[in-house]
Design brief:
Layout (H helix, E strand, L loop, with lengths): L16 H9 L8 H14 L4 H5 L2 H7 L5 H5 L3 H8 L8 H20 L3 H7 L7 E2 L13 H12 L7 H10 L3 E2 L6 H7 L5 H10 L1 H7 L1
Helix pairs in contact: 2-7, 2-8, 2-10, 9-10
Length: 217
Amino acid sequence: MTGQADTACAWAPPDDVLYRRYHDEEWGVPEYDDRALFEKLILDGFQAGLSWRTILYKRENFRRAFDGFDPERIARYTPKKVERLLRDDGIIRSRTKIEAAIGNAKAFLKVMETRPEGFSGLLWGFVDGRPIVRNLANHKSAPAKTRESEAAAKALKSLGFKFCGPVIVYAFMQATGMANDHELRCPRHKAVQKLARPIATARRAAQAAKPSSRKKA
């Protein structure tokens, strides 16, 4: 840190390199890609009862085990595949959460088939297509849930999603830029806000990038 005061959010200490990189490069950045949002919601479901740090340190293992979070593949997982996942010590070995992820993949595919706004448009609709900005002096002042996350959780449940209660959904909203809860002193507070775009424009850009991202996965 070359002697300069660290003004980043207090929850992301500089000596935890991976966690800090997540704060500096990902947390709060508006995400509009359907599949990226699907991955994050699945990971947040696995976080239930645990810390995000635990999941973050296992994220690459999850990506390997769950076929790059390809919803079409996950939706076809068989009982044999579930048993293999339960033997994988690189992930959270919870049968309930694994089976919920499979069900969520099926629900995601149905949303993508039946809703013109897609998964991204559905979720961003709960914040009217633009981030909720809070000027927090301390991250501990952030709410655990909001009326927006409660509405989103209710809608997701009605569509067949599991492990998506209002607290989980609000953490998801914070991470994916639907809520900007970086502390006011944190340089990322303004930086992520500048990345927000009108939802229609953002979705078109995300969809245009999909072919290359699929090849990479």
